What does this fold into?
Amino acid sequence: MSILKSGLPAGALMVPARTEEPGSTEPIVLSLVVPTYNEAVNIGPLLQRIRNLLDPVLGSRYEVIVVDDNSPDGTWDVAARLQAGYPQLVVLRRDREKGLASAVVRGWQAAGGDILATINADFQHPPELLPQMLDLIRDADLVIATRLSAAGSFGDMPPLRRLLSRGAKRAGEFLVPHIFSRVSDPLSGYYMVRRPAIEGIELRPAGFKTLIEILARGRVRTVAECGYTMQKRRSGQSNAKLRHWMDFLIQLRRLRAHSGARQS
Ligand SMILES: Nc1nc2c(ncn2[C@@H]2O[C@H](COP(=O)(O)OP(=O)(O)OP(=O)(O)O)[C@@H](O)[C@H]2O)c(=O)[nH]1
Ligand SMILES: [Mg+2]
It folds into this structure.
């Protein structure tokens, strides 16, 4: 399994400036992080789909970084076995740290691309959007796949989840309106950001939500959005827990304090 030579990224959740691989003629354009926990059934088909979409556009100038938290179903092992036929694939298996938000940033810390992106492993985020997002990021610092534009929707999301999501958005609009008014779907987990917009900035996400950290702390001047319909999880079980909503409220309070400190 390919793990970083220097080990897994640790310390502050801060993406470094990009370093060119010595002698590399084909710099990596896109680094796509797939955080996984118990996605053994989904990961193979997802990687194949991503490959079919990105190979024609980027050839070898992209990487997919699976960041797995030592899943009991062996997702890391399934992914690692696919590396032999897929040189663009990197697999990081974590056993000291857990959680979706930190997995995404750790993946970016290990990444070589100028464009940093993330997508869920369960097919709720249609990979077919990736080429369009790549087009849009040419003129933007951040591209968000949104469920809340004319072209997007929550699809068949169960009513309770929809209510929770709406409540979370309302809480954000109330506590940190300057962050939540910037984009239609600040709770999206499917987006691309240019490295310079976040490099050298410590992100402090809690639970599941990283995008609001980027909107709050990053150097994001231009944002583009593209609508999508959220799909049903293809296989396996949701990892979303009530605890993550509590984490989210803690994160909102932290971001509110951060913006208060910046203004004073
Ligand atoms: N590395 C890592 N990945 C995680 C963790 N929790 C969730 N994930 C991954 O993050 C993505 C989103 O998690 P989901 O369990 O689908 O959560 P969700 O999409 O909010 O919930 P559903 O709508 O019910 O699917 C998936 O790819 C998960 O495998 C975690 O603790 N560590
Ligand atoms: Mg999901």
Remarks:
- The chain has eight helices and seven strands.
